[in-house]
Amino acid sequence: MFQKLKAKLLSLNFVVNYKKILPYVKPYWGRALTAVLITIPIGSMDAVIAWALKPYMDVVMVEKGTFGSSTILIPILIIVFSSVQSVLTYSATYLNTWVGHKVAMDVKKKLFSKLMRYNAAFFDKNTSGDIIFRFNNDVDSACSGLLNNMKLFTTRLFSSLSLICVLFYNSWQLAILATIVLLGALFPLTRVRKRIKGLMDKTVFSGSRVMTHFNETYNGNRIISSYNLYDYQNLRFRNTLDEVFKLGMKMIQRTGVISPLMHFIVSFGIALVIWLGSYLIVTHQITAGSFVSFIAALIMLYNPIKSIGNNFNNVQMAFLAMERVFGALERVPEIRNCENPKTLETPKKSIEYEEVGFSYVKNKPVLKDVNLKINIGETIAFVGNSGGGKSTLVNLLPRFYDVTKGKIKIDGTDIKELDIDSLRDNIAIVFQDNFLFGGTIRDNIILGKEDATEEEIQKAVKNACLEEFISTLEKGLNTEIGERGVLLSGGQKQRIAIARAFIKNAPIVILDEATSALDNKSEAIVQQAIENLMADRTVFIIAHRLSTVRNADKIVVVNYGKIVEIGSHEELINKKDGIYASLYHTQLH
């Protein structure tokens, strides 16, 4: 039985996980060790009360001894020991909480750094709720659970050892019986993990979905209001909560029997001990004081065991959270530097796509055998049907995704051989919906170069056609824009993004449908800012409005993952039965 219990405990991987967490505890090892050491006397002092009952019962209650110093001393010692135990318990709790929060902060910092390095496909597959739960809530559960479990384990260990010593001190016969019952009471715990593992995974998933609902409501509040989606959102949220409730009840169904079962086994054991103890007293093999002391120690030993079933789910959740945290920490980003990567200096010759293929989903290619050469300094426009692969083609250049076939080269070097940071330092991107961080306009502009001088900032503001707008603001560049820039119009956001690209001063610029969401007036202003940005740079333009790409050096028509036409506007517009010509004339009419 003991071997089975040991095997089940090892299956929890807690030894492995504790070894993994040690490097994070190491900076605070002094406080962590003190917290653990304090639990030794906390647990051991439990035996004092039980042990003290033997002489007290034998002298005072049974032999009717005089009311002497020993009679007064024992209650006083019990009060003193209990007071010391209370102070030590508070100290251990404080130190455990302090270390737990520090470790959680350090783990979150490392996880956050790793999260930022994950490739775009990771964020495509995971919701915001999943990420918040895994990278924040799981860390709190794992770290607090780690130290609380350690405190609970060491306290119970030394308490149990000291109480077992009291048991054997009073009666070895009763102690053997009590130990057998103890192992029997612990046996149901060995069956729990298998019963609840799948449920716990579903519970975590449901919890992350609840967070996703809150995030969607926050980010989509205007859509909810404009489309009167209150009932729709309420229904989705309530369905998720109902699912969480059902999973919680299933958890109780599968684990709720453990605590009552353990309670029955323990009660059965106490009954056996009382029966055997009565026999030993009658036969004068033990004294009444020894028996009372034994029973007190046994109850103090068994009580935590009876209630452990109620806490076991939390312990399991902490261990599973720990496994998920270390799974995230040990995850190797799919897009990363090769060994000894080369630093990309300013591109001088060309950018080439050689037999490039790409799939978001296996065996469902989005790009097929794309061959394309762009000379440095050229402006290339990508047009074509929606979903044809235009954005994908450009997103492969800064390695948001990696090609599944072929190569992309800059000056003859495969971009997979280049240092990712140096590659992206050479590329500035203006998206259709640019993300702005909470803070000021200045904060968002200098993201491209945090040490930018005031002269560089003013130049970027001017080139991005922001001067007139900034002059109307009381605080100018130091105006707060709200989370995600909610206080700005679409055109203002775009111009701030363009100013950010100006500050970065990268030789390669990607414009991903940068004006498609703007009205005509805003588009005209932003288009002027874009033309300023394009000067003396290699530019990739993705556009639906073909009127914005007439001046491109090359226009590349992409349909269904393949390049079907390449040429200047004049060449393609005059091509008989050409796709570009058809699209262009359709938009004009």
How would you describe this structure to a colleague?
The chain is α/β, with parallel strands linked by helices. Helices cover about 65% and strands about 10% of the residues. The protein is elongated and about 115 Å long. Mean pLDDT is about 80; it is low at about 1-10.
Topology:
Elements: H1 2-11, H2 14-25, H3 29-44, H4 46-62, H5 69-117, H6 120-125, H7 128-170, H8 172-186, H9 192-219, H10 221-226, H11 230-255, H12 258-282, H13 288-330, E1 350-361, E2 364-375, E3 379-383, H14 390-395, E4 405-410, E5 413-414, H15 420-425, E6 427-430, H16 441-445, H17 454-463, H18 467-471, H19 490-504, E7 508-512, H20 520-534, E8 538-542, E9 554-559, E10 562-567, H21 569-573, H22 579-588
Parallel strand pairs: 3-8, 3-9, 6-7, 7-8
Antiparallel strand pairs: 1-2, 1-4, 4-5, 9-10
Helix pairs in contact: 3-5, 3-7, 4-5, 4-7, 4-13, 5-7, 7-8, 7-9, 7-13, 8-12, 8-13, 9-11, 12-13, 17-19, 19-20
Q: How do the strands line up in the largest sheet?
A: 6-7-8-3-9-10
Low confidence ranges: 1-12
Overall SS class: alpha/beta
Indicate the multimeric state: single chain
Brief summary of the model shown:
The protein is of the alpha/beta class. The chain is built from 22 helices and ten strands.
Short key terms for the protein model shown above:
589 residues, four-stranded antiparallel β-sheet, alpha/beta
